[in-house]
Write a structure and sequence with these properties.
Layout (H helix, E strand, L loop, with lengths): L2 E5 L6 E8 L5 E9 L5 H8 L6 E7 L5 E4 L3 E13 L16 E4 L7 E5 L1 E9 L3 E10 L2 E3 L3 H4 L5 E3 L4 H8 L1 H8 L6 H5 L2 H16 L14 H8 L8 H19 L34 H18 L21 H13 L12 H10 L9
Antiparallel strand pairs: 1-2, 2-5, 3-4, 3-6, 6-7, 6-8, 9-10, 10-11, 10-12
Helix pairs in contact: 3-10, 4-10, 6-7, 6-8, 7-8, 8-9, 9-10
Length: 377
């Protein structure tokens, strides 16, 4: 079976070198494209065809290494017809006699479709309106976010760029966020996200029991929070659509804010309920997701809810006793963990640690609103 490889293996949009196996002069092939990404030149060529479902992009011997242009990232569905080309047994009776042409014999049947994967650059927002945003940028081949390098591609990714505030810029450079960013590379899309429906189910069980003072060491509150626990409890288990997950994040974030800030009662107070201790330190800081399928904010909000709840349930003096019984057990996927680390760092009141920053400058920029005005020498 003939196969094809690209050089480099993780090819970017543009001119791409192809090689065929087996590399031999004994076989001749015709290479066709049968499907291509929307907006690509090859897609336009396919749409112009009248009586065929495939477009010839190259023909030659299998020991040749053609260069083709794949101008859009994505997957190009290709097909190869491989032939054995031999001399005719009859020379022909006159010049140009078709009988004198080399005979082409199809080597088996037409090949099964295969794909040439060209990298796609994807981006997503990080952060919040209150503290600033940045852009997460990565390249995907097939199902996987793959790392790029200076040597192979001329740039490094995944990367976080375009910070909109000094606080966000420091968070991008911080040790914690830099380490978390490294875990993105090499992950499939499913592994990056983690199991969101199981995560929501874990929230449903743990947050409701925490608010309802159910678990070892309870009561945790001066009074149970029936209002917000009922709000969370109405959410469906195992949400499977993006619309349901976005709604989940919106309702959960709102309920946690109201619960932690005592908006619906003195849940966090001394034993007599006379001195309140609302938990502003750990309240959610991510933006509220919109009601209609706002997955960018929903993913950030779920990551932030995890951070906020895990810190809140053991916070004192907000609680009569720390809640060790209702800890989250479903871990965040690497993407949500990165969002959580970014938010945790950007909101830090002590200043982020970054190997290339003077710690005093970092703290004053983050905590006191200073701006770095250093000019390059």
């Amino acid at each position: 079976m003939a196969t094809i490889v690209t050089t480099p293996a993780k090819a970017l949009p543009g001119n791409v070198d192809l090689a065929f196996t087996p590399s031999t002069r004994d076989r001749y092939l015709r290479l066709y494209v049968t499907d291509a990404p929307e907006g690509s030149e090859l897609r336009r060529e396919l749409e112009l065809l009248q009586n065929s479902s495939r477009y010839l992009v190259w023909q030659g011997y299998m020991d040749e290494t053609p260069t083709l242009t794949f101008d859009k990232g994505g997957q190009y569905v290709m097909q190869m017809d491989v032939f054995v080309k031999g001399a005719s047994t009859y020379g022909g009776g006159y010049q140009g006699d078709p009988a004198s042409y080399l005979i082409e014999t199809l080597d088996g049947v037409n090949s099964s479709p295969f794909t040439v994967k060209i990298g796609q650059r994807i981006e997503s927002r990080m952060g919040s309106q209150s503290y600033g945003f940045a852009t997460l940028r990565a390249w995907v081949w097939g199902q996987t976010v793959e790392p790029t390098s200076i040597a192979e591609h001329g740039f490094v990714s995944p990367e976080i760029v375009e910070a909109t505030t000094p606080r966000a810029a420091i968070a991008v450079q911080s040790t914690a966020v830099s380490a978390s960013l490294l875990t993105i590379a090499g992950q499939t899309s499913s592994d990056l996200l983690g199991d969101l429906d199981l995560l929501c189910n874990d929230f449903l069980a743990k947050v409701v029991d925490h608010m309802s003072d159910i678990g070892a060491g309870s009561p945790y509150h001066s009074s149970t929070d029936g209002i917000n626990s009922a709000e969370v409890k109405r959410l469906q288990t195992s949400p499977t659509t993006t619309l349901a997950i976005a709604d989940w994040a919106r309702v959960l974030r709102s309920a946690l804010v109201r619960h932690m800030q005592n908006d619906n009662g003195p849940f966090h107070a001394d034993g007599h309920g006379t001195t309140e201790f609302p938990d502003f330190n750990n309240s959610p800081i991510a933006d509220q997701p919109g009601a209609q399928n706002d997955m960018t904010r929903a993913v950030i909000a779920l990551a932030d809810a995890y951070r906020a709840y895990e810190a809140h349930r053991i916070a004192t003096p907000s609680h009569l006793s720390a809640d060790a019984a209702n800890a989250m057990t479903v871990a965040l996927g690497p993407l949500l963990q990165l969002h959580q680390d970014f938010l945790q760092t950007i909101a830090s009141s002590t200043g982020a640690t970054a190997p290339t920053l003077n710690p005093g400058a970092s703290q004053l920029i983050q905590v006191a609103g200073f701006v770095d005005t250093t000019e390059s020498a």
